[in-house]
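FORM 12-B: Structure-to-Sequence Request
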């Protein structure tokens, strides 16, 4: 199954190297600041205790908090440099914003404590050693000036700026403590200690709230503060070839790494590569966005038919019951036209049409048993997705991806001349259905999604990669069928007759050898997916899935390694139109050749 659209792309290597150099520099600054702050915090803490000064205590408290904040910021910088992993495919860049958020919360707590303590001292004055306060505060002031100067050299990182707020607060605290010490020495007026502590707390409160709001905005995936969301939408509509824009979202995946996803309506799908190139150039030059995921859509979909087509639709087709007959529909791609084969069961005059779409390495014959059972109520159409079975092969293997498949399915529905269809999608066929159903004016009325969801488990990706497009040729058909049955063992336990019905059509003979029916190049875009692309594709699929407002049934194999129970639960949570069922003793994916599985589908579509 195709995990993600191949057009999703990662940042250029040059940008990554630049960011790496900058992060190393940030770490050095934070390390210097941490050593200086931690070295003085113990001295000031002891002096504050013996001098009994709240202003000095607040400054000492700032010092201790600063050390923790700087240590947390340094740790966040180190974590953020870790490369992406199967469980964190975007990497750990958000650790910086998380550290800034935690630091700000800690600062708010410290400010609140100082103000409460200061107010209490108005009712219960404490004697303060003015000389000790003055000396220690002066030394602390010099040290904080040095630390603040070091950190101010990095003004872009929200993490470093959050740490700088701590240090600036400590610097103000040192000034307040110094003034308090001098006033107490000269006049003996003790309340000055508490008054200046409150004043300093109010001054740093504003900066703390600013950092807190910025880090919270980032963690909640808000539109980057330097990007005008409405202007981005307007600029997209001005790109030549773009008819409309909707479902537009802009956010930051990691600091200084803006991303955009959305749906773009265009007149002809064949023009999409040129339009996408213009969009990428505009977004990068005008808004600094270079991570872009866009879904092209053709207006009208199945409803947009010519006058002649409407007339032809009124003419009754011959009353012929089809039993797996093969037909072809002409589709378009950036490389030109191609033919997609489809196999049909039932009465072509039946207005109720069920489209069944197979998985990554399968073909329409998978649904023979199901189609025969459903053909009394439906005209059942089972296409061979391009590159499989009787369909044409594509010259450019990178076009073997969901956008092209969706465009082909739209051509098929238009060719059938129907306004609505029901959809049965297994694995890749489920992903195609989800994207198609999320599009405006989609003809899909209800949909059964067989063992797939917006998130594909890494174990399944690894398993698929072990055989998709790999050498497969046998001199004897029996040996080839046995090997294919082993590959498909997760589909469930079947009799030899059932395996022959299900896997027999997967084998074709070429040059005296038995090989798989599909173009081995379907593995090219699959193999090119990296963790960042996979995560971006997953986010796009979740977004599409949430836009589907039709009845859906999710069928999961109880032992599936591709669709987890957790993902099914999340799908049911985010989309109220869905219900789910699990088939025990089956992995990825239920074959729907068993009577009880066929009955389940008939019940849902009835």
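FORM 12-B RESPONSE
SEQUENCE OUT:
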């Amino acid at each position: 199954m195709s995990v993600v659209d191949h057009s999703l792309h990662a940042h250029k290597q040059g940008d990554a190297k630049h960011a790496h150099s900058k992060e190393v520099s940030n770490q050095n600054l934070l390390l210097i600041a941490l050593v200086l702050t931690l070295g003085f915090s113990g001295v000031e803490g002891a002096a504050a205790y013996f001098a009994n000064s709240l202003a000095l205590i607040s400054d000492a408290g700032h010092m201790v908090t600063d050390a923790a904040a700087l240590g947390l910021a340094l740790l966040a910088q180190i974590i953020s440099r870790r490369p992406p992993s199967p469980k964190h495919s975007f990497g750990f860049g958000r650790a910086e914003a998380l550290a800034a958020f935690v630091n700000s919360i800690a600062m708010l707590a410290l400010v609140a404590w100082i103000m409460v303590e200061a107010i209490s001292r108005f009712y219960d004055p404490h004697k303060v050693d003015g000389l000790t306060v003055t000396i220690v505060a002066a030394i602390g002031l010099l040290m904080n000036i040095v630390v603040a100067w070091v950190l101010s050299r990095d003004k872009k990182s929200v993490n470093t700026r959050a740490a700088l707020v701590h240090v600036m607060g400590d610097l103000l605290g040192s000034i307040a403590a110094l003034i308090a010490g001098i006033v107490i020495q000269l006049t003996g007026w003790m309340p000055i200690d508490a008054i200046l502590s409150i004043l300093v707390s109010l001054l740093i409160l504003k900066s703390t709230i600013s950092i807190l709001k910025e880090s919270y905005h980032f963690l909640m995936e808000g539109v980057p503060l330097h990007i005008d969301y409405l202007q981005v939408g307007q600029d997209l509509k001005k790109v030549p070839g773009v008819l409309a824009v909707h479902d537009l979202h802009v956010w930051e995946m990691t600091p200084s790494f803006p991303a955009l996803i959305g749906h773009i309506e265009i007149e002809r799908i064949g023009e999409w590569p040129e339009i996408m190139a213009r969009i990428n150039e505009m977004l990068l030059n005008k808004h600094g966005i270079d991570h872009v995921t866009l879904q092209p859509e053709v207006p009208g979909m199945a409803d947009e038919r010519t006058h002649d087509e409407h007339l032809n639709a009124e003419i009754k087709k011959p009353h012929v019951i089809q039993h797996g007959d093969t037909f072809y529909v002409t589709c378009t791609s950036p490389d030109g036209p191609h033919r997609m084969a489809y196999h049909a069961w039932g009465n072509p005059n039946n207005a109720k049409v069920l489209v069944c779409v197979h998985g990554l390495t399968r073909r329409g014959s998978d649904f023979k048993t199901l189609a025969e059972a459903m053909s009394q109520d439906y005209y059942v159409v089972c296409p061979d997705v391009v590159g499989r079975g009787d369909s044409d092969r594509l010259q450019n293997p990178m076009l073997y991806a969901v956008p092209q498949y969706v465009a082909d399915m739209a051509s098929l529905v238009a060719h059938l001349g129907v306004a609505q269809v029901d959809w049965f999608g297994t694995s890749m066929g489920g992903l195609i259905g989800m994207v198609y159903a999320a599009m405006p004016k989609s003809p899909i009325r209800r949909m059964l999604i067989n063992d797939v969801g917006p998130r594909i488990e890494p174990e399944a990706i690894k398993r698929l990669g072990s055989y998709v497009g790999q050498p497969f040729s046998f001199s004897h058909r029996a040996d080839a069928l046995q090997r294919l049955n082993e590959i498909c063992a997760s589909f469930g336990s079947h009799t030899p007759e059932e395996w022959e019905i299900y896997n027999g059509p997967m084998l074709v003979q070429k040059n005296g050898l038995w090989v798989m029916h599909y173009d081995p190049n379907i593995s090219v875009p699959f193999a090119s997916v990296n963790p960042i692309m996979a995560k971006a594709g997953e986010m796009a699929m979740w977004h599409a899935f949430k836009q589907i407002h039709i009845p859906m049934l999710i069928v999961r194999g109880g032992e599936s390694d591709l669709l987890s129970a957790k993902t099914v639960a999340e799908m049911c949570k985010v989309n109220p139109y869905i219900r789910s069922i699990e088939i025990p003793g089956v992995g990825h994916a239920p074959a729907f050749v068993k009577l009880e599985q066929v009955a389940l589908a008939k019940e849902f579509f009835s």
